[in-house]
Amino acid sequence: MSQSKRGHRGLSERVAGAVTRFTGSGAAFLVAVALVVVWLVTGPLFEYSTRWQLVINTGTTIVTFLMVFLIQRSQNKDSLALQLKLNELVAALEGASNRLVSVEELSEEELKTLQAHYARLAVMAARDGDLLKSHSIEEADARHEVKLGPGRGPHTPQGSQKRQKEHGSEESDQPASR
Hints:
Layout (H helix, E strand, L loop, with lengths): L2 H21 L2 H16 L8 H43 L15 H21 L8 H12 L8 H11 L11
C-alpha cells in the first residue's frame, strides 16, 4: 500500500476519533442544547415559519445521518479490540480451548453448537456445587463418548458418519479452513 493511502486513512481515523471523543463529551451536549435554545428564541423573529422549522429539521437529520456512521465505526473498533483481548486471554490460559480464538468468525450454527456445549458445562458446574472446579468442552465430550461407547462420540469419524447418514449430508463436520 502506498504511503499516501496510509496517510489518508490515518487522517480519516484521526478525524473520526476526535469527533467521536467530542460528541461523547459534556461540551457537545451543551453546544446541542445551546443550538436548540437559539432556535427556540429565534422562533418569534421568523414568525415560526416553515423555513424556521426546516432549519432544525434539516440540521438534526444531517447530524443524525452522520452520527449513525460514526457510532457504527466506534462500535466496530471497540468490538474488534475486545475480541483481540479475549483471543489473547484464551490463547494464554493453560487448559483453555483454542477453538474460541476468533470465535466471532464462526457461523451462527457453529456458535449455537458451542453455546450448547457451554450449557452442558453450566449443568456440570451446577451439579458439582463447587465454584472452584473447572470443566472443559473436551471433558464434556469425553463424558458423552463414554456414555455412547468408544469411538461413537459426536466428534469421532464414526459419530460424524452416523450423523451424516441420519441427516442425509455428505459434508464433513469439520469446520472449513479460514
